[in-house]
Amino acid sequence: MAELLVIRHGQASFGAANYDKLSDLGHVQSQLVGEALKTRGWTPDRVVIGGQVRHRETLEGMGYTDGEIEVDAGFNEYDFHDLLHARYDGNVPDLILGDRKTHFRSLRETVFEWQAGGLPNANESWLDFTTRIESALTKATREGAEKILVVSSGGVIGQITANTVGGPAKMMMTLNLQIKNTGLTKFIVSGPKRFLHEFNATPHLDVPEHADKLTYS
To answer: Could you tell me if 61 and 31 are in contact, meaning their C-beta atoms sit under 8 angstroms apart?
Structure first.
C-alpha cells in the first residue's frame, strides 16, 4: 500500500491578466504547508505536479524540489475560461469575470452543463477531463513509491475524491468549491483501489497566527 497526498496549489491571482501564478499570499501558504509536512517528518518518494505555473510555484514554496519532479498535464485544472466562453459564445459578462461571488456561481452552473454533455464547443469534454485524471493517477501511483506527493488544482482534487467515494458527477463541483488553497487530501492506494483518509485539511493554517491566510480561490 502507498500513501497519496494531493495538495491544491496556493492562492492564484484571481482577476489578474495572468491567473496562473501565485499571489503573494499563495507563496506564503505554500511555504507554511511545506514546513508543516517537514515537521511531521513526511518526505515523498515520488513527486508529481500538473503542468501549470501555480503547481510548480507551490512545490517550490514547499521546498520539495531537490529530487526528480514528474510533470503530468493530466493533473491540470479544467480550463474554466474556455468553459465560460463556450457557454456565453465568447461574450462573458464583465461581472462574471470580475466579481468572485458571481463568477463562482456561474462557473458552478457552467460545469454542471458541461458534465451533462453540453458546451460542445469547449476545447475539452467532461469525459476527456475525467479520463486524463485517471490516467495521471494510474501513472503517479505505480509501484515503487510508498509516499506520493501530487500538486494539482481544486477541480481535479474534487473529481478524484468524488470518484473514490462513488459519488455522482455533480459532487466534483460541490467539493471543488470547498477545497482550500494548499488543502491536503490523503488517500491510501492498494493496487487499483483508492481509499479516502483525509479531505481538505489545513493544519498549517488552523492556528490563530495564520487564520487570516485561509483562502478558497
So the answer is: yes
Burial 180-194 (b: 16+ CB within 10 A, else e): bbbbbbebebeeeeb
The CATH code of the domain that includes 47 is 3.40.50.1240
Same domain assignment for residues 115 and 14: no
Range of the domain at 115: 79-123
What global pTM score does this model have?
0.94
Q: Is the pLDDT of residue 17 over 60?
A: no
Q: Which tens digits make up the pLDDT trace of 92-127?
A: 887 777 777 888 899 999 999 999 999 999 999 999
Cα–Cα dist 198/185, whole Å = 5
| Number of domains comprising the chain | 2
Distance from C-alpha of 52 to C-alpha of 49, rounded to nearest angstrom: 8
